[in-house]
Amino acid sequence: MDEILARLQPIFRDVLDDPSLVVTAESSARTIEQWDSLAHISIVSAIEQEFKVRFALGELETLNNVGEMIGLMEKKLRG
Amino acid sequence: MNEYRWDDLSVGLSHGFNAVVTDEMMGGFLAQTGDVNPLHVDRDYARSRGFEDRVVYGLLTSAFYSTLVGVYLPGRNALLQGLTITYNKPAYVGRRLQVWGEIKFMTEAYRRLEISARISAGDEQLSKAKILVGLL
């Protein structure tokens, strides 16, 4: 999880335009003010491009925080 | 007007069109925005600063990026979500511009396109843009 989280940091900092942002497994749209609906789409798109994975809307709708996103990514990257 | 739907689109699909900025368009932009910067309205001043002529408003040429997505790629079903523009060279009134864009990435879950676009005049690239477009 730590390796993926480290690669996610620059994505979140870039999309949310906050160079000092530190994302943790507990981070979510509820805890990060700039994480609005359009930013969310950009985050998902950037992750898909960086990690060469694809998400279905149904998968994304079940996620509550970054840690759960990483869990989903680990499944896809293993598969 | 094109009416692409999600399933019709693919990475690599591109569209382009030609456009010309006229004196009337410059006057309209001035009236709408109040941007009286002499670089755009005073030919002598623009020439004194090293330009060939008065410089077309950057956001006036960039309005053609709106036309690109709203009329051509994907057309009717477009919803502009983001636009990042870098300007490379000045545009001048009366010169023929080529506006072109290509789909670079598609985010299936949210039906969003990432389009790489550019505006050129002959061999010169005047600006480039990354455009984010949702599909209605």
Would you mind describing this structure in some detail?
The complex is a heterodimer of chains A (about 80) and B (about 140). Chain A has a single domain (about 1-80), classed as ACP-like (Non-ribosomal Peptide Synthetase Peptidyl Carrier Protein, Chain A, Orthogonal Bundle), CATH 1.10.1200. Helices cover about 60% and strands about 0% of the residues of chain A. Chain A contains 4 helices and no strands. In chain A, helix 1 (about 1-15) crosses helix 2. Chain A is globular and about 35 Å long. The model of chain A has no long low-confidence stretch (mean pLDDT about 95). Chain B is of the alpha+beta class and about 140 residues long. Chain B is built from 4 helices and 5 strands; from the N terminus they run E-H-H-H-H-E-E-E-E. Chain B has a 5-stranded antiparallel sheet with strand order 1-3-4-5-2, covered by helices on one side. The longest helix of chain B has 15 residues, at about 60-70. Chain B starts with 13 loop residues before the first strand and ends with a strand. The model of chain B has no long low-confidence stretch (mean pLDDT about 100). At the A-B interface, helix 2 and helix 3 of A face loops of B.
